[in-house]
Amino acid sequence: MGSIRLGMIGAGQIAVFTAREFRRHAACNVIAVADPNQERAAELAAMVRAGHVHTDVGALLGRDDIDAVYIAVPNAYHEALACQALAAGKHVLLDKPFALNAGAARNVIDAAEAAGRTLMLGMNQRFERNVQRARGLMAEGRLGDIYHVKAFWRRRSGIPRMGSWFTSRSAAGGGALLDIGVHVLDVALHLLDDFEPASVSGATFTRFGHRGLGEGGWGRSEREFDTFDVDDFATALIRLRGGAVVSLEAAWAIHQPSGNDHDVILYGEDAAMAVYGNQLFEPGAHDGEYTTVQNPQAPAIAYPHCSRAEHFINVLLGTEDPIIDPHQALTVQRILDGIYESATTGKEIQL
Ligand SMILES: NC(=O)c1ccc[n+]([C@@H]2O[C@H](COP(=O)([O-])OP(=O)(O)OC[C@H]3O[C@@H](n4cnc5c(N)ncnc54)[C@H](O)[C@@H]3O)[C@@H](O)[C@H]2O)c1
């Protein structure tokens, strides 16, 4: 394939950001946009210079001038639309989280295998410059064996548009854990290179959203739900078969000094690293010395475009090997399911 002809399904807030990345790629042409909201679809189509606007996804998937689709729609539609696109012979970049649960995610993998098409998840955090740098430093052995990871994304007031699909369990499947917990959990496992969980114990809370507090405003969809029935805080401990443990926290709303507190801290035998803070904590050259290295010298990063969208296009063109294996994303989904189950039962869940 000399270039990729793309369809965009869903013209909401993240699609606007991802569209810029697709446009940046010289070998990607966006042909059509589909969204039941005609106005949003037309606006996005104008932005990416796509000639066709559909309010019916089936019409976009029926086009034979499209090779691949990017799907960014409410979580409840991920499974059905991804399966429909794969069955129509399109390669799929599906934004996170994978699906409402692991069973639904497994169905999408089966559909990709049956169709012989590429399926990739939108784990954009893997391409963050500092995540790539950390991977380089780890490959050099700078941290030694890593036995503990503290992964957190906590917003003081960051609940997406209240009353939109995001805050309804039926449409989203879950709250902060599925929305932002998924990112830092994926980064932790990606850096550890260990997607074999043994068990998980977790707790979830709804302490702000149901009182109408903590809205940050993300999202373009309509306010159509009048209940807030998802978590605005989740915490978990995940034991991996390789021996390391990951402690995870995700908050859409919480009392804390800063508006956004987000990092993945790797604790190794030889050094520790704050991945997003890009700091290394290690003994100094002399006895008793201890140093914090800001912006440590790291090997050149593997994906200078820092973009899941560009990576997807490059994988289809055959110029990059895929680094987001859907089976890894399925494992992440199994862990998220386990956290919700543990939160409900009050028990540790064996995976
Ligand atoms: N990778 C990331 O960092 C990231 C960031 C934000 C959102 N997301 C994910 O992207 C998806 C969309 O999120 P958003 O923030 O753009 O939400 P949004 O509410 O801003 O937009 C959702 C869009 O989907 C459209 N839609 C609804 N049903 C549809 C259907 N059946 N077919 C086509 N379009 C449909 C809506 O009309 C709306 O325009 C979610 O799954 C979300 O978790 C990923």
Which secondary structure elements does this structure contain, and how are they paired or packed?
Layout: E1 4-9, H1 13-24, E2 28-34, H2 38-48, E3 52-54, H3 57-61, E4 68-71, H4 78-87, E5 91-94, H5 102-115, E6 119-121, H6 129-139, E7 146-155, H7 169-172, H8 176-192, E8 197-205, E9 233-240, E10 245-251, E11 260-268, E12 272-274, E13 279-283, E14 290-294, H9 308-317, H10 326-345, E15 349-350
The structure holds nicotinamide-adenine-dinucleotide.
Nicotinamide-adenine-dinucleotide is lined by residues 9-15, 34-37, 40, 57, 72-75, 77, 95-96, 122, 124, 164, 179, 219-221.
Short account of what is shown:
With about 350 residues, this protein is of the alpha/beta class. The chain is about 30% helix and about 25% strand. It has 2 domains: about 5-125, Rossmann fold; about 125-305 and about 325-350, Dihydrodipicolinate Reductase, domain 2, CATH 3.30.360.10.
